[in-house]
Amino acid sequence: MKKEIPPRLENVCLIIKEHIRNRDYRFSEHAVQRGLERSISFADALYVLKNGVHNEKKTCFDARRCTWKYAIEGKTTADSLARIIVAFEKGMVIITVIKLFKKAKREKR
Predict the structure, then answer these.
(1) What pTM was computed for the model?
(2) CA spacing 20 to 30 A to 35: which of 9, 45, 49, 72?
(3) Structural domains counted in the chain
(4) Which residues contact 92 (CB under 8 A, 6 or more apart)?
(5) CATH of the domain at 30
(6) In 3-state terms, what secondary structure has residue 106?
(7) pLDDT, tens only, 9-64
(8) Is 85 exposed, middle or buried (0-12, 13-18, 19+ CB in 10 A)?
(9) Which domain holds residue 62?
Protein backbone atom coordinates (compact mmCIF):
# COMPACT_ATOMS: atom_id res chain seq x y z
CA MET A 1 0.00 0.00 0.00
CA LYS A 2 1.42 3.35 -1.08
CA LYS A 3 1.43 6.17 1.43
CA GLU A 4 -0.16 9.40 0.30
CA ILE A 5 2.22 12.31 -0.18
CA PRO A 6 1.46 14.98 2.41
CA PRO A 7 1.05 18.55 1.12
CA ARG A 8 4.00 20.95 1.33
CA LEU A 9 3.68 23.45 4.13
CA GLU A 10 2.82 27.03 3.25
CA ASN A 11 4.60 29.78 5.22
CA VAL A 12 7.27 27.34 6.37
CA CYS A 13 9.45 30.17 7.75
CA LEU A 14 6.67 31.21 10.13
CA ILE A 15 6.15 27.61 11.22
CA ILE A 16 9.89 27.22 11.86
CA LYS A 17 9.96 30.38 13.99
CA GLU A 18 7.02 29.07 16.01
CA HIS A 19 8.80 25.76 16.66
CA ILE A 20 11.93 27.61 17.77
CA ARG A 21 9.94 29.96 20.02
CA ASN A 22 8.21 26.94 21.61
CA ARG A 23 11.53 25.04 21.82
CA ASP A 24 9.90 22.25 19.83
CA TYR A 25 12.95 21.22 17.81
CA ARG A 26 15.90 18.87 17.96
CA PHE A 27 19.18 18.45 16.10
CA SER A 28 19.73 15.06 14.44
CA GLU A 29 23.03 13.29 15.11
CA HIS A 30 23.91 14.00 11.48
CA ALA A 31 23.31 17.76 11.95
CA VAL A 32 25.46 17.79 15.09
CA GLN A 33 28.32 16.04 13.26
CA ARG A 34 28.08 18.28 10.19
CA GLY A 35 27.94 21.37 12.39
CA LEU A 36 31.21 20.36 14.04
CA GLU A 37 32.85 19.59 10.68
CA ARG A 38 31.63 22.81 9.07
CA SER A 39 32.03 25.17 12.04
CA ILE A 40 28.31 25.98 12.22
CA SER A 41 27.17 26.21 15.84
CA PHE A 42 23.67 25.43 17.13
CA ALA A 43 23.20 29.18 17.66
CA ASP A 44 24.21 29.88 14.05
CA ALA A 45 21.82 27.22 12.72
CA LEU A 46 18.94 28.68 14.74
CA TYR A 47 19.88 32.21 13.62
CA VAL A 48 19.67 31.15 9.97
CA LEU A 49 16.33 29.42 10.59
CA LYS A 50 14.92 32.55 12.25
CA ASN A 51 16.28 35.05 9.73
CA GLY A 52 16.81 33.13 6.48
CA VAL A 53 14.65 32.51 3.44
CA HIS A 54 13.03 29.36 2.11
CA ASN A 55 14.85 27.98 -0.94
CA GLU A 56 12.03 26.15 -2.68
CA LYS A 57 14.38 24.71 -5.33
CA LYS A 58 16.31 22.81 -2.63
CA THR A 59 13.18 21.67 -0.76
CA CYS A 60 12.33 18.06 -1.58
CA PHE A 61 10.12 15.13 -0.62
CA ASP A 62 11.78 12.23 1.23
CA ALA A 63 9.82 9.20 0.03
CA ARG A 64 11.51 6.82 2.48
CA ARG A 65 10.33 8.85 5.47
CA CYS A 66 7.22 10.20 3.71
CA THR A 67 7.99 13.78 4.71
CA TRP A 68 9.06 17.05 3.16
CA LYS A 69 12.56 18.40 3.81
CA TYR A 70 12.71 22.19 3.74
CA ALA A 71 15.83 24.21 2.88
CA ILE A 72 16.36 27.53 4.63
CA GLU A 73 19.29 29.73 3.60
CA GLY A 74 20.81 32.82 5.14
CA LYS A 75 23.77 34.40 6.86
CA THR A 76 25.12 33.19 10.18
CA THR A 77 26.08 35.53 13.01
CA ALA A 78 29.62 35.49 11.54
CA ASP A 79 28.21 36.68 8.19
CA SER A 80 28.91 33.42 6.32
CA LEU A 81 26.24 31.73 4.20
CA ALA A 82 24.57 28.51 5.31
CA ARG A 83 21.70 26.21 4.33
CA ILE A 84 19.78 24.40 7.07
CA ILE A 85 17.55 21.44 6.19
CA VAL A 86 14.57 20.71 8.45
CA ALA A 87 11.63 18.33 8.54
CA PHE A 88 8.59 18.07 10.76
CA GLU A 89 8.33 14.72 12.56
CA LYS A 90 7.07 14.94 16.14
CA GLY A 91 8.27 18.52 16.26
CA MET A 92 10.90 20.07 14.04
CA VAL A 93 14.04 18.10 13.23
CA ILE A 94 17.14 19.93 12.05
CA ILE A 95 18.50 17.33 9.64
CA THR A 96 21.73 18.89 8.43
CA VAL A 97 23.70 22.12 8.13
CA ILE A 98 25.60 23.13 5.01
CA LYS A 99 28.13 25.93 4.58
CA LEU A 100 27.58 27.76 1.28
CA PHE A 101 30.15 29.52 -0.81
CA LYS A 102 29.36 32.19 -3.36
CA LYS A 103 30.30 31.21 -6.89
CA ALA A 104 32.55 33.63 -8.68
CA LYS A 105 30.89 35.26 -11.66
CA ARG A 106 32.42 34.27 -14.97
CA GLU A 107 33.56 36.97 -17.31
CA LYS A 108 31.73 37.07 -20.63
CA ARG A 109 33.98 36.88 -23.64
Answers:
(1) 0.88
(2) 9
(3) 1
(4) 16, 19, 20, 24, 25, 26, 86
(5) 3.30.2310.40
(6) coil
(7) 999 999 999 999 999 999 999 999 999 999 999 999 999 999 999 999 999 999 99
(8) buried
(9) 12-100
